[in-house]
Write a structure and sequence with these properties.
By secondary structure, the chain is mostly beta strands. About 30% of the residues are buried.
Length: about 240
Amino acid sequence: MQASSKRWIAVLLVIVAVASLGVVNASVFLYRSLTGNVQVTDLTSLTESNLGNAGMACTGFYIKGATSGNTVSNDYQLPNAGTNAPDANWSVGASGYNGLKVTLYNPVCQWTNTSDGTTNTLYGHAHFDFNLTNGAWYFQDVLGFGYPKAITSPSPVYVWINVNQSLTDSNIVSAELIIYKTDGTTTTQVASIDLKSTGITSTPITLNSGEALQIDVMINATGSVTSDSFTVGFYVSSSSSEQPR
C-alpha cells in the first residue's frame, strides 16, 4: 500500500506541473527576429559609357520618335515607340480634349548621350487619361517600354503583364492593350491584354537588349461612363520559369 501511494503522489505531481506550465504559457512568448538593411543606387545620372552596368533595372516606359514630348532622344539605344502619344491628345475646342493623354512619372533610369549631351529617361509609371465619346476607339503606338542596347547582361529579360485591377463599367464593352515588339526594323504583335478581366499573361514576353514594346489601346463603349479605372503591372525578370504573384 505504501508503494502504491507513492506512485499516485508522483502522478499527481506530474499533473500539477503540466497544469502549471499551461498557465505560464499564457504570458510567455517565443521570440524570433528578422532584420534588414536597404541600399538604393540612383540610376538617373548615368552616361552611355556606364549604362551597360545598370542591368535590367534600366527598363521602363518612354516616348521616342513623337512630334513632341520625347523622353528618349535620337539615340541608338532604343527604337521608336510611343510615336503617337502627343497626337492622341487632340483638341476639340471649348470641350477640352477628346482622346488620350499620356503622362509619365517616376524616372528609374536616365543617361546622357556622349555625342550631343542630350538626356534620355525611362520611367517606372505611366498613366492614361481617356476622354471619349461612345463607340470604338483605337490608339496606335501611344507608349513604349524598352531595354537599352548597351545592357548585355542579363539579356534577354522577360516581361510578365498582369491586370491587377480591371474595368468594371458595363457600358465599356471591350478594352485591350495590344502590344507589339520592335527592334527598329521588325515589328511583331506579341500580346493582347484584356482590360475587362484581371489576370496575368500565361507566358512572358521576351525582350532583348535594344528592343522595345509599342503599346496600342482599343476601347469600345456603348454608353456614358462617369469614371472607371484599371491597373496593369509590368514585371521584368531574368528568368521565364516563375510568374510573379
